[in-house]
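FORM 12-B: Structure-to-Sequence Request
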């Protein structure tokens, strides 16, 4: 707690699609989360590097132009913050992304992700968070 106020849990959204990023930001803000939105892999890594403590979760697009993929951003974040709940969103239907969907440790969903899919991930992140306290 800071100044008697409960801590707002930080969710990082890494998404280059403005509509998608804005919708996620609004949804999570209404749920009471602090939200940091980045538009590319480089900015995402910079935010992760500056964080002094574990964020609540990372939700990222798989393909954000040049630089790291969403999967690579999650792996980078999990190296700094082991166990960080990560979700990768993508419109990609290639065998490579389907393979990623079967790997452990990263939650995946196809775009457009439903509010239910996002809420399921947030509930998963909350159970991880609760297990750390």
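FORM 12-B RESPONSE
SEQUENCE OUT:
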């Amino acid at each position: 707690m800071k100044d008697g106020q409960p801590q707002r849990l930080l969710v990082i959204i890494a998404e280059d699609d403005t509509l998608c990023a804005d919708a996620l930001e609004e949804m999570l803000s209404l749920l009471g989360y602090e939200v940091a939105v980045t538009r590319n892999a480089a900015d995402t890594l910079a935010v992760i590097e500056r964080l002094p403590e574990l964020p609540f979760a990372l939700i990222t697009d798989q393909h954000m132009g040049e630089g790291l993929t969403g999967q690579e951003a999650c792996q980078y974040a999990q190296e700094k913050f082991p166990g960080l709940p990560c979700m990768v969103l993508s419109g990609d239907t290639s065998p490579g992304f389907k393979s990623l969907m079967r790997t452990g440790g990263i939650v995946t969903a196809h775009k457009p992700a439903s509010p239910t899919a996002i809420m399921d991930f947030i509930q998963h992140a909350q159970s991880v968070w609760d297990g750390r306290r």
